[in-house]
Write a structure and sequence with these properties.
Blueprint (H helix, E strand, L loop, with lengths): L1 E15 L5 E11 L10 E9 L4 E10 L6 E8 L3 E8 L7 H6 E8 L2 E9 L7 H5 E5 L8
Antiparallel strand pairs: 1-2, 1-8, 1-9, 2-3, 3-4, 4-5, 5-6, 6-7, 7-8
């Protein structure tokens, strides 16, 4: 069975409430549209997350949900100081600020359900080239869950 795969790189910053210091954050994810007939359902992804200021990289897993108002991201990864954390947030499309609303995604950092910080990432490549560079037809394979 074939489906679509979205390969996306986003970068920005993360700030934890405890020290209020921003550090560089980026991730590369591959979203497999397993629910291609229902694209609004959460679509699984996996990839790598980087905290470049520390030279730290780790696996990231989560879901992308497409919505008319903008996509929602839910990512889980192991933070070097905190262990397992989640980033959750969504873009909010706005016709008066279209470029920023298409590319920037504010996120909240959670640990065990408690908000412990904030992050913001953005797609920094060409929006015009996005469909040609980021979307591919692939053979659908079962997803390995986050451990």
């Amino acid at each position: 069975m074939f489906t679509l795969k979205l390969q996306e790189t986003m970068s920005g910053w993360i700030e934890l409430n405890r020290d209020r210091r921003q550090e560089s954050l980026s991730f590369d994810i591959g979203v497999i549209f397993l629910h291609r007939m229902q694209p609004w359902k959460p679509q699984p992804f996996s990839g790598m997350l980087y905290l470049r200021d520390r030279g730290y990289q780790t696996e990231v897993h989560g879901y992308l949900s497409l919505k008319l108002s903008g996509p929602r991201y839910e990512l889980k990864f192991h933070h070097p100081d905190l262990g397992l954390v989640e980033l959750k947030g969504e873009k909010s499309y706005d016709i008066t600020n279209l470029k920023e609303s298409l590319t920037v995604c504010p996120l909240t950092v959670y640990q065990q359900g408690e908000a412990i910080g904030y992050a913001e990432v953005a797609y920094r490549e060409s929006m015009l080239a996005f469909p040609l560079q980021a979307i591919r037809l692939v053979r659908a394979e079962p997803r390995v869950g986050f451990q």
